[in-house]
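Reviewer 2 asked us to include a model.

Predict the structure of this chain.
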Amino acid sequence: MILYLDCASGISGDMLVGALLSLAGAREADPGPLDDVLRPALAAAGIDPRLVQLEDVRRGAIAALAFKVADQPGFATFDELIVSLYASDLGQPATDTVASIAERMAAAEAEVHGRGEDEEHLHELSDVDTAVDLICAATLLAKLAPERIVASPPALGDGEIETAHGRLSVPAPAVLSLLSGLPTAGGAPAVPAGETPAAPLGELTTPTGAALLAHFVEAFGGIPAGRVERVGYGAGRREVPGRPNVLRAVLVDPAGAPDESADAPGAATATAGGGHGPGDHVVLEANIDDMTPELLAHAADALREAGALDVWMSQALMKKGRPGVVLHVLAAAADRERLSEAVFSETTTFGLRVVPCDREYVEERRESVKIGKLKVNVRLSFVGGRLASVSPEYEDVRRVAAAVGRPARVVYEAAQSVARSRFSGS
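Predicted model (structure tokens):
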């Protein structure tokens, strides 16, 4: 199924949640997925599930579902929101998604307002509704699991809006930053000469709505070809002059639609990764039973510094029942002689076994992710163009764990989760 979002009246977090709930059949008298899916997710995230409710409303001539969140203090900083979620019982997919979107919003805020003493604060976070909207949208989309999400270019609105930074023109600077590189429907249409301008539309696309679009939507345009399965309407908070203030969500079954050609714009491509080296490597092996663990560890470090691709040891039983180890050194064939000399210099062995070997390896990339504002370097492996594994750097994990006062295991898993969320589509 394809999820299509009609953003003719813009998009906000509560409009998207309302539209998805409407699509799922929820109503004020029968909340259904609100009680079954969203309230448990909010409780797992440490947020009072009684803060949310549904209301059947009309916007213009359209019956829609309004998703409402009661006023309550929220989070002071992005770090607090992200770390709180990773320390909560909220499921990993939703946590990863919310953290990714929150980091996107933090970057937009920093780009627009600079990095002063208030740099870590997003004023929308002062109330809990932004966090609730992100958690609920991520949870519902994970439950719906569309094959892809398409949207119309969002209407932005016009006029002015009161913000924590003062009175600003619509669209707000953070909205433009979040939608950078994406198509929009612009603000109000131009007024012909001699005609009286209509009343301002106000803000139609909010920073939260813009961040959700930028994160989830794969393509912008008209409704995709296929069979319409269900339609839902999420209500905006106010009436808008001249248009129903709703977000329309349409579930489309693409069966029967023309196939996209392999080279059509937007067609998925996979990049092959990794490679192999037949016969261009050797493993040097030595049995050792008369060195202390400290000297063996030093020898392994010295071999790595000398250019060994890998060094490891396995336990073995030597002559007369003595415990010992087998030292294994993986090396390029061209380095065989030089590394053999290093083994003889650093260990007590009198001989080596030289085993020719092939080597298969995946595509490897080194990237960094942020846990809050703290960076963790990660190693990524890709198989057939898809992310296969994530290995956070141990020293970075230790440093961040000490800084935030959390167990290293929690930071390690959080770094893996953020990396998977960010790079799975690479």
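Confidence is low (pLDDT under 50) at residues 117-123, 260-273. Residues 108 and 177 are 6 Å apart (CA to CA). We have added this to the supplementary material.
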